[in-house]
Amino acid sequence: MTNPMESPLPQDDLAMAQAAAWVARLGGSVDGGDGVEFDAWLEAAPGNRAAYRRAVLLWQEFEARAGDVLAELGPRGRQAPARPPAARRASPLRWLAPVGGFALAAGLALAVLPALMVQTTVTSYATGKGQHRHVALADGSAIDLDAETQLRVTLSRSERRVALGDGQAIFDVAHNARRPFVVTAAGRTVRDLGTQFDVKAHGDQLTVTVARGRVEVGSAASIASGRPVALAPGQRLAIDAAGVGRLTKVDPAETFAWRAGRLVYRAQPLADVVADLNRQFVEQTEIADPELGKLPITGVVVLDNPRAVVARLSLMLPIKAVPSDKALILLRR
Predict the structure, then answer these.
(1) Angle at 164 between CA 163 and CA 165, to 5 degrees
(2) Is the pLDDT of residue 271 over 70?
(3) Which whole number is the average pLDDT over 60-74?
(4) 242, 252, 164: which is closest to 201 by C-alpha?
(5) Domain range holding 155?
(6) CA-CA distance, 333 to 320, in Å (whole number)?
């Protein structure tokens, strides 16, 4: 998309026009070349991020009022006789008055794009060992994928749904009560109620940590009634392979630290730590003795390189590392 270098429009209206064009262009998700260009546009001017969020909200508002708007724009609406002032004030278009002229035009463009309003997009994302990825969705939400994570995003007019396979991701959701945001993982559903949260799924195990807002986790076997479990900020629900759940208070910053290259553990077994490391590094680590894997670790692991990490772990536990052709082997010291 070509962004004009010069424009007679006020800067705010120009940003809104460009934002509206991006909403129309992206449809459901940002990926590939579009993602690079979209990120560049977001950073090009201080007001672009806010303009994009406003354009998304405008689109959502039009979705709710599309019937009235299109009726007003139809032949009957244009040829209808003049109404008294009170009737004009009741027009379904009245709420657009505070918006700038060009922003209004951009909003109307979104309103009359039927393909955009009904389009369903399905996009898959994946990361390999040691890879992290940030995905911006066209609804204003964002997802950060941890290493070795696979997920599929389906965006439709009525719902936003993410299927998370094995892996971990942080969801920063733009709340829209008319379009629920649902994450399915490990046979359960995590329904957003306007929030930022982390989901980690491995096999039948699921961990959900909330940093902001609220979520509901469904099908938790630890609740006899089977009703969804509501999580507030600073709460974590961990469900093991047997379906038993445990709700605890946590510092969400510790869970989210993986985005900054740190893993925080509190009395977690060495085997879990090694499993996490093997997702972050190509060079793998193995535990020679299963009993060794039960040793608990409390501390912060900085993810610089596997040998340095293991060397620091040996300061916390009675272990040593022996290199082999395939991996670092952990032995009891």
Answers:
(1) 115
(2) yes
(3) 60
(4) 164
(5) 120-251
(6) 6
